[in-house]
Structures are given as structure tokens and as C-alpha cells.
Specification:
Number of strands: 14
Shape: globular
CATH superfamily of the largest domain: Periplasmic binding protein-like II
Largest sheet: 12 strands, mixed
Structural class: alpha/beta
CATH topology of the largest domain: D-Maltodextrin-Binding Protein, domain 2
CATH architecture of the largest domain: 3-Layer(aba) Sandwich
Helix content: 25-40%
Length: 341
Amino acid sequence: MNSANIWKSLAFGIAAATFLGHAAQAEGTVVVYCGVNEEWCRAAANAFQAKTGIHVDMTRQSAGEIYARLRAEKDNPRGDIWYGGTGDPHLQAASDGLTEPYESPATEQLRDWAQNQAKRSGNRTVGLYLGALGFGYNDKGLEGKDKPACWADLLKPEYEGEIQMADPNSSGTAWTMLATIVQLMGEDPAFDYMKKLNANIDQYTSAGAAPAQAVGRGEISIGIAFQHDLINAAKTAPAVKVVSPCEGTGYEIGSMSIVKGARNMAEAKKFYDWALTPEAQQIAATTGSFQLPSNPTTPVPPEAPDPAKLKLINYDFEKYGSSEERKRLLKRWTDEVKNAS
């Protein structure tokens, strides 16, 4: 999504709907900052509003931008709930006291990694889904060139101007990539890698899914993104190949948090509880999002990568979910990589 659309507010209204055989009556409003793709945001808003009669005021942004927005609105909160997006910024918001502790009755039914996300945050956030990082390439765009299989391959000179990734200052996807490379290589070697990779970067996008979409449209040859976004691109563009890097890769625990001081707290808790149900979680796959859902009774999309079959690193959510580490690494990346050229 381009930057002009990121701040676009999506308000959804449904005049009447049936809930347990009765017409749902209007029961207030909930303001949702949505960190998943726009289609999922829209579908979730419509489904919740139809079920409860609660009006949903939805704004779609990248995870890093929502985190920055919560910081800016700390003294005058305007949002009620942060729905989806990479979990590290949710943890960073929790450590900054920007989100409200809440333990849903559904939490104890979730997969272990989702419950662990709640525990490490003091119940200020919870896991919604798990998604593995990777990259994809367009076979047509790389015709006559080597096909990358590893992170190291992306540094080849033949890919100059052929790679797109998001900016980790705004994107949770790109933050996960930066934190993954640091954990794989060590910090100084990781920054050497990122500087060399910068020479091959065509553009740093605002949204993490944008590189996958660009690869699918054939606008760029290689895109660094979460594998579920690349899988969605490959469904409509068979030339797109999804890669789980040979060295290993990181992953996200997409999360959800209630904003501290939310004006519509009761409605926010209703949305939170609903979002952890199979009914809500199975919406993702219908909108082209193929992550592993946190509720084990939610049907797993057949397209979803199996974490057990991937070479995942032992991702340090405590360290890279801290506000201090985020500020430090982002400043170094901005100074030494993005602005160095």
C-alpha cells in the first residue's frame, strides 16, 4: 500500500444484522488501529459489526506506524484497540505503558506461543497468528540470472536495483528482518550485510506487504516479506517463488493489544474476545492471509507454511521486543544504511 493510503480511515457501517436469530442493535463504537492487510481489516470490521451491532471505526497502518501513533497520542488516546501487526512493536508498546493489561477468557485456549506472548507482556498483548519471514522472486524478472536461496545470495551484484524491502522504522515486517539478521550474524556483521544489501535495494516501502505485492505484479524481481504475503502473491502470479532462506529465518507473532486509556473500553474488550475465536480467525484466509492462527480450533489454511518444516531461529522476543533495543537499532540502521548513501 502506498503512503497516501496508509493513513486512510476505513469506517464501516451495517444497518442491521442477525445475531442468534435476533437483529443486532447498535451498542456503541470501537476505534480499531489495524495492522493486517486492508482486505482483512475490512472483513473483520464488517463481521464484528454485523455480529454485535457495535460500530467499527477502522484505520489501517503498518505496525511501526501504529506504535508511533500510540506514543504520539499517549496523553489523549484516540484508538481503543490495536488489531494485528508484528508482535515486537506490540511488546515495545507494552514496555512503554501504552497498552492496557487484559486477560481474555479465551487466552488459556490458545497455542503456547500465543499465551507466551501474553505472559511476557504482562497480558498487555496476545498472539493472534504466527508468520515466518522470507523472500520471494519473480521467475520472469530473474530470467537468465541465478535464483536466490539464501540471505547471502541477495548481495550478488547481478541483483542491483532488483530488491525491495520495507523501512523498519515504519514496518514491523522489516523490523523482524533487521532483528533476524542481527541474531543470525551478530550485530556488526549484520550491519555490514545491510550496507551491502542497500546497494541492491530499489526502494524501502512503508508497508511490509508491499514488496510481495510488487513482486507479484512483476514491478520488482525480489521482495523481502513474510512468507504468507508472498504465498498470496504467488496464488495470482505463478512466476512468484517463495523462499525460506537456507541460513534460517525469523518469525512474527502477530498480536493484539488494548490501548491504555481507551475511551470505549467495554467495546474494545468485546472485540478482543471475538478476535480470538475461530469464527474471527478464519477470516484471514478468506482475504489472502495464510498465517498459522493462534486458536488451535481454527482451520489452518492449506497454503500456510508449516513452522515445523522451516528452519526458524530461536527468536529473542524479550530483547527485540524492548523499546530501548528498537530505538538503538533503528537509529543505527537509519544512520549507517538508509542515510549513508
